[in-house]
Design brief:
The chain has about 170 residues and is of the alpha+beta class. It has 6 helices and 5 strands, in the order ββαβαββαααα. It has a 3-stranded antiparallel beta sheet. A two-stranded parallel sheet has the order 3-4. Strand 3, helix 2 and strand 4 form a beta-alpha-beta unit. Helix 1 packs parallel to helix 2 and helix 4 packs across helix 6. It starts with a strand and ends with a helix.
Length: about 170
């Protein structure tokens, strides 16, 4: 991952917010390097990160893949069919064209990272201009602290001391 942002998409309202969402869904925009991870690999992470077997109770919290082109649509549909067969269940995942993505409010960005004040302080010190929210390091740390595996070296993330120790302990759990 290069960067991630949470926000809203799939609806008609201009400039939605969490309190004025309209018909949008909460979504994650992922910027990635296809030389390091494929779209098919990202789809695997998607399926492993939630349970698509539950019928959505609202448009806001539904399972959806927003595709940028026909190739992504084809891969997403094949992946959906494969996972449905693997689970032996219907999957309630929409596959729709990616429309306008509206970035969510700052307090929604990197929620897991923001929840660890020691690691967050270390990142804020490294990015004093506030650009941390768009950094690769913040995206990766947010994933680790959110319970997702990380195969890289922590030294690449610019942590030291207690911050690095906290993240390592989290990875060992």
């Amino acid at each position: 991952m290069i960067r991630t942002r949470v926000g809203y998409t799939g609806g008609e309202r201009n400039e939605p917010t969490y309190r004025r969402l309209g018909d949008h869904s909460e979504a994650i925009r992922i910027t990635y390097d296809p030389e390091r991870i494929t779209y098919a690999d990202l789809l695997e992470v998607f399926w492993d990160s939630h349970s698509p077997t539950w019928e959505p109770f609202s448009r806001q919290y539904r399972s959806a893949i927003f595709v940028a082109n026909d190739e992504e649509r084809t891969l997403a549909q094949a992946s959906l069919l494969a996972h449905s067969a693997k689970l032996g269940q219907k999957l309630y995942t929409a596959i729709e064209p990616a429309g306008t993505f509206w970035t969510a409010e700052d307090y929604h960005q990197k929620y897991s990272l923001r929840s660890d004040p020691v690691v967050m302080a270390s990142i804020a010190e490294r990015y004093p201009d506030g650009s941390w929210v768009d950094s690769t390091a913040a995206a990766r740390l947010n994933g680790i602290l959110g319970g997702h595996a990380y195969r890289g070296e922590l030294g690449d993330l610019g942590l030291a001391g207690e911050s690095e120790a906290r993240v390592r302990r989290f990875m060992d759990d």
